[in-house]
Amino acid sequence: MRGRNDSGHSKRPVVLCCVMIVCLCLLFLYFSGSKGQAGTTAFEYGTKFSRSLGWGSDDGDDGSEESIFGTGDADDVKPKSFPVCDDRHSELIPCLDRNLIYQMRLKLDLNLMEHYERHCPPPERRFNCLIPPPHGYKVPIKWPKSRDVVWKANIPHTHLAKEKSDQNWMVEAGEKIKFPGGGTHFHHGADKYISNIANMLNFKDNNINNEGMLRTVLDVGCGVASFGGYLLSSNVIAMSLAPNDVHQNQIQFALERGIPAYLGVLGTKRLPYPSRSFELAHCSRCRIDWLQRDGILLLELDRLLRPGGYFAYSSPEAYAQDEEDLRIWKEMSALVERMCWKIAEKRNQTVIWVKPLNNDCYKRRAHGTKPPLCKSGDDPDSVWGVPMEACITPYPEQMHRDGGTGLAPWPARLTTPPPRLADLYVTADTFEKDTEMWQQRVENYWSLLGPKVKSDAIRNIMDMKANFGSFAAALKEKDVWVMNVVPHDGPSTLKIIYDRGLIGSNHDWCEAFSTYPRTYDLLHAWAVFSDLDKRGCSAEDLLLEMDRILRPTGFAIVRDKSTIIEFIKKYLHALHWEAITVVDAEPNPESEENEMILIIRKKLWLPEAGSHVSST
Prior knowledge:
Among the domains are: 219 residues, Rossmann fold (3-Layer(aba) Sandwich), CATH 3.40.50; 189 residues, Vaccinia Virus protein VP39 (Rossmann fold). Helices cover 28% and strands 18% of the residues. The protein has 18 helices and 19 strands.
């Protein structure tokens, strides 16, 4: 009996050990190979770790009053590190990931460009890892030199240089890629092309800014954004727009150059910009079928153009004499005539149409004319995920009577209260006080940054919750541009931002932004995490998204409650961020809790060595 008992005891630890090994293997397979996805050893899907600690939620607010940021106590659990994503994800754009579309077997209409629209991963498929820089990555070349040359290692794609070699888009030059300023329709340089457009419109001195009255431009199908890059010297700012299509990385090149740009497509959803935002829309060989679906894409441009706004169109349909181009030109001319557009000028290979100043032409159209006017209940400023409609957006009564926007010329419009403040029931006094407050705050930020930042270190800036755009307005004297982001579910203040002569986009920070990794030098997050707390979304996901967007050696300024600042500080090591300073913010009479300011800098690190590289 003793022998049998001893044998049983000796086998039991072995059995238990085997069971434990099997369990550990199953757990490893679950976390590193979710949904049967191959090759996931360098990253994790989802936010399992964050949800296990109560930091995130799949379904938004669950009614609990407990903050996702906890109490801010030092004893709260914090991660030691994040895994590094696979090298093949170094250019990951989570909501524009074609691999995700294939994996989820989404049924999309390719003819309508739905595969280039946003399709965000569900929580269980989100990457919970740090996006690595490509091998050989260097600190980007500084503006204004960057307009004309970038490091090839930072965007190691040269197919456009070969494909567009006859059009002067870009040229390989050893370790660098140069941009001669050409485009599909302006081989000899964007500057001459821009001057020609101004000449066609009889603008003084052939200056495209029209004495400050033309300030914001939408460039559709922008390529590497040389058109937008050369507009900047005329004090004109363009939202350069292109999808992540066969010309991959064109928007990434634009942002690496320091030129404002956004990943987007004219597909089925409205672009994330409010109505009457742009004085000029531009399309140079943008390969868009403007006649499809009763002209719905041209009507989207119409929604976005201001009264008296222009559409400059350089394409074979405007000049070619073959049968197909003549047919398209005839049908397009008939469509824009029914939309009450008129030809401002047609010369050589370019036609420029102008939009009416008021509703008079719309009222004179025969009953039943298509496209119809949009229904009175339609909100032209509601854009996030809203389908386009094949209808004309008429002007509000006040704008119709004024026969225009009533905006001051640039640069006065930056600080002049715009008429559309009345839409939000905001007074001019409130607007002016907001402008003054942010001027003081930005001066304070720069004094805090001063010892750590060189004058040319910052070019691309994102204000993650821009309100009226006063943060960006305070930076007017600096050689920077700002992507002003306005929450999709808040007041529609983005139209005020555009009326100030600035640019931006609507967005939902529970999702990833439509940009490539490593595209912004500075992120400003004022109360963004507090808003996230109210919605119950994952703060960890947002920190990883900020890290994805931020360039190595770039900065983030977080202005929020003390509990949130303490929460973020616990992640600095895991994110390879260093704290530059943490200070109390000046008192805010509108907030019950005093705010704090945390300024961080992202380190330049190499994934293969797990080490940091000097940023000098």
